[in-house]
Design brief:
The chain is α/β, with parallel strands linked by helices. It has six helices and 17 strands. The strands form two sheets. Strands 14-15-16-13-9-12-11-10-17 form a nine-stranded mixed sheet. Strands 2-3-4-1-5-8-7-6 form an eight-stranded mixed sheet, covered by helices on one side. The protein is globular, with a radius of gyration of 19 Å. The protein starts with 5 loop residues before the first strand and ends in a 7-residue tail after the last helix. The structure holds fe (ii) ion.
Length: 330
Amino acid sequence: MTQKLLSKLTHLVVTTPKLEESLRCYRDVIGLEVSGEQNGSFFLRGWGEHYKYSIELKEGSVGSVETIGWRTEGQHELEMAVRRLEASGNGIGWVEPNFGRGRAYRYMDPSGHQHEVFWEIERYKATGDVAPLFPNRAQKFRPRGCAVREIDHVTMNSQDILRDIKWFQETLGHKYMEYITAPRGVVFAMTTTGERGHDMALVPELPGLKGRVNHIAFWLDQRVELHRAADVLLDEGIEIEFGPGRHGLGEQEYLYFREPSGLRIEFNAGGYRNVIPDWEPVGWTVNQGANVWYKNQAMPESMFESFPSEGELEASEDAQHHFRETTFFQ
Ligand SMILES: [Fe+2]
């Protein structure tokens, strides 16, 4: 068991080729608050979040996640994390503060996703009309669209799930919670830095690709809110790809849809809490209800599509450079 160094998944840098449409979706449909704009990026946060942003939305050639941000437990833990990342050979280097997030250390995980880890961060506190009356909140609850409360998790593609899980556990102390096995081996695994079932998950990657994600997820407090969100999405003309339903792993209620860039978004509600420090990861088979608790729905084939998709990669030389294992299209 490695010491816990990370406190939370804090932010994702998301790229979209349709900046205006994606911004409208994150703000008006998903219901995030825009806390500012800087150098062409929009910074957004859920109404319940205490930091200045959980999504940095910027223009890019494809819909994808460029960087995954984690806040450490403290300054000492940041220094330990950097030492371990440097020793692992996966360190990239320090980057300057960005919109309230202090100086951060960047690194690449073994499957080619860029992350950053930091301690210093500015808190968000609303003023004026949305200044909170409840002293423990960053702002008034003024729901818009699906009104998600906060960021929940990111699910990434991995060339070798067990290798990567071991790397995350040993390097940074991510806690390995649950996994799904199929005849060909482990096809899903999830880790957490907090009390929820997961804040990061891994699914298999296609040969020759790296750094892709399957989806990003936001949190709603209650299951009834997730079902209300389903109605909001349908009223907006947005197709629900899968759900609402309940996953076996994590026991969370889910639904999935796509934002205008094509990137898959999940909403979660409910689920267990787990603070057992010597938890042993739990294995499932699909027929035990791993994906679908009620065992009455099949996950659609489309859910295996990850981002950027193969079609987008064929269309974009720029994206090939980032997401192919070689820079030459094979
Ligand atoms: Fe998920």
